[in-house]
Amino acid sequence: MGVNNSIKEIIMRLNETVYQALNNQMAMEYTASNIYLQMASWADSRDLSGIASFLNEHAEEERTHMRKIFDYISERGGEPRVQEVPAPRDQYKDVAELFDAVYHEEKSVSDSINKIVFLAWDQKDLATFQFLQWFVEEQREEEALASQIVGKINTIGTNGQGLHLIDEYVGGLVGNA
Ligand code: OFO
C-alpha cells in the first residue's frame, strides 16, 4: 500500500467501535420501520385509514434512515451489514396504547443516536459526529410529533366520535412529517 493510500485509509475508514454502533443503528431503524408497518396493518384492519396512512409513511421514512446510514458506512470504506431483526408486536389494546408505543420507540431511537454522537466525539470521528446531527434534529421532530398525537388522544379520547376525529387528525399529518 502506497503512502497516499495509507493516509486515505486513516482519513476515510471508520474505526471498529463506530462502525459497530452505526451498523446496530441500521438494525434499529429497520426494526422501527417494521414496527410502524405492522402498526399500519393493525390500523388498516380496523378501518382507521388516516392512522394507517400515517404509519405507512412513517415506516417508509425509517427505511430511508436505515439506507442513509448504510450509504454512509459504505462511503467511509466500511461494509454495512443488514442484520436479522425481531418480528414486531402485532396487537394493541387501542389507539392510545399504539401511539404510546410509537412515542416510546422514538425515545429509544433518540437515546441510541445520542449515544453514537457521544461515541463519535470520544473517538474524534468528526465526520460521523457531523453526519449524526441530521438524525438528532430528525429525532427531535419525531418525538415532538409523537407526543403531539399522544396529547391529542388524551384530550379528545377515543370513544365513539372521538376515534373518528383522531383518525382524521392523524391522517391530516401525512405528508407534513
Ligand atoms: Fe424515528 O427513527 Fe429513524 O432515526
Can you describe this structure?
The protein is mostly helical. 76% of the residues lie in helices and 0% in strands. The protein contains seven helices and no strands. The chain has helices spanning 3-12, 16-44, 49-75, 95-122, 126-131, 133-156, 161-171. The N and C termini lie far apart (47 Å). The model has no long low-confidence stretch (mean pLDDT 93). It binds hydroxy diiron-OXO moiety.
How would you sum up this structure in a few lines?
This protein is an all-alpha fold and 177 residues long.
Topology:
Elements: H1 3-12, H2 16-44, H3 49-75, H4 95-122, H5 126-131, H6 133-156, H7 161-171
Helix pairs in contact: 2-3, 2-4, 3-7, 4-6, 6-7
Bound molecules: hydroxy diiron-OXO moiety (OFO).
Hydroxy diiron-OXO moiety is lined by residues 29, 32, 62, 65, 106, 109, 135, 138-139, 142.
List its salient traits.
177 residues, single chain, 76% helix, binds hydroxy diiron-OXO moiety, mainly alpha
Helicity level: over 70%
Instruction: Report the principal-axis shape.
Output: elongated
Q: Tell me the series of helices and strands, N- to C-terminal.
A: HHHHHHH
Largest sheet entry: none
Mean of pLDDT:
93
**DSSP summary: helix tally:** 7
Residue share in β-strands: under 5%
Provide the structure class: mainly alpha
Radius of gyration: 19 Å
